[in-house]
Amino acid sequence: MNQVGYNQAMRFTKMHGIGNDYVYIDGFRETVADPAALSRVISNRHTGVGSDGLILLLPSNIADVRMRMFNADGSEAEMCGNGIRCVAKFAYDRGISRHNPMTVETARGVLSLELFVMSDRVQRVTVNMGEPILESARIPTTIQSPRVVDQPLPDFGDLKAAPGWRGETELDPRMTCVSMGNPHVVMFCRQIGRVPLDRIGPLIENSPLFPRRINVHFVRIDSPTELTMRTWERGSGITLACGTGACAVAVAASLTNRAQRRTLIHLPGGDLSLDWRETDNNVYMTGPATEVFSGEWPEVATAT
After folding, report:
1. Do residues 10 and 296 lie in contact, with contact meaning Cβ atoms separated by under 8 Å?
2. Which SS3 state, helix, strand or coil, does residue 101 take?
3. Which of 51, 75, 120, 171 could pair with 166 in a Cys bridge, judged by C-beta atoms 3.0 to 4.6 Å apart?
4. Using one digit for the tens of pLDDT, what is the confidence trace for 56-75?
5. H or E element, residue 144
6. How high is the pLDDT of residue 299?
7. What are the tens digits of pLDDT across the range 24-51?
8. What are phi and psi of 140, to 5 degrees?
9. Residues 204 and 214: beta-carbon distance below 8 Å
10. Which range of residues forms the domain containing residue 39?
11. 131 in a domain, yes or no?
12. Looking at the structure, do residues 153 and 276 belong to the same domain, yes or no?
């Protein structure tokens, strides 16, 4: 097993789930001494491989494989819905595990994934993302309410950052907070393309209301079974897709009677199918997993 240092080459694979892209390292073969530092360097889209972050596949004592995920800023996140689909594809296609369903250990717990295989390669994956967490203290948020469902939208200082954006986007001035193992805030508006995500996203992500920061989503209701969303992702900024975010959006839309429990959600990078089942209260997410390329990273910004 290689101990990754400054002058040793390390194998990596670039993968994405509907445009939400990560660099994957096979932790069964490689050892990364400082994954947070590596994520910051390798994720850089100008001087690195370019990605929304870094994901390590590691041995597990309680599942087929273990997943650790780091955002582009080096912060470790609890879960990634698009990333975990690619973890399953990586593990299955390379023979690390041929189980189907496959189990993956995450900071959210052990999740079960159903693999759709063609020509001995995983094409699509359905992930049982577990039950949504709605209790304010567990999301977490400091808002003094048992749940934050269609609560009035506070002033995040956004008027100074982007005057008039609420009117231009036809924003519904209410928000819903959901955790899928990681925290999300969902807001609905008609003109999502006019939301100045680059200015509004950081303000909400870093608000004192959210002590562990938060993922921010703006959503348009197209029909009771079809939604369109845009995302500012905690630690990564504007991303083409967010799987856990799509789950949170589906839950928020259903909770507030804006949509049904089964929805198709359009994200900038592609579509995800969501099913918040009444039978077990779990959210099931289905979408593709795509491998882009593999290579060697010769200079890793972590010491042995």
Report:
1. yes
2. coil
3. 171
4. 999 999 999 999 999 999 99
5. none
6. 60
7. 999 999 999 999 999 999 999 999 999 9
8. -100, 155
9. yes
10. 2-125+289-297
11. no
12. yes
Contact by Cβ (8 Å): 241, 272: yes
Task: Compute how many other C-beta atoms are within 10 angstroms of the C-beta atom of residue 268.
Answer: 15
State the total domains in the chain.
2
Spot the catalytic one: 86, 177, 189, 242: 242
Residues 18, 89 within the same domain: yes
Bridge partners of 65? 104
State the DSSP H helix or E strand holding residue 45, giving kind and residue range, or none if neither. none
Q: Are residues 162 and 63 in the same domain?
A: no
Active site residue 177: no
Residues 15 and 72 in one domain: yes
Q: Annotated catalytic, 242? A: yes
Place of tokens 């189980």: 99
Residue 201 within any structural domain of the chain: yes
Tell me how far apart the alpha carbons of residues 136 and 146 are, in angstroms, rounded to a whole number.
6
pLDDT digits (tens, 9 = 90+) for 238-263: 999 999 999 999 999 999 999 999 99
Domain harbouring 205, CATH code: 3.10.310.10
Query: Does a structural domain hold residue 302?
Result: no
Helix (H) or strand (E) segment spanning residue 44: none
Token pair for 199: 């200015």
3-state secondary structure of 136: helix
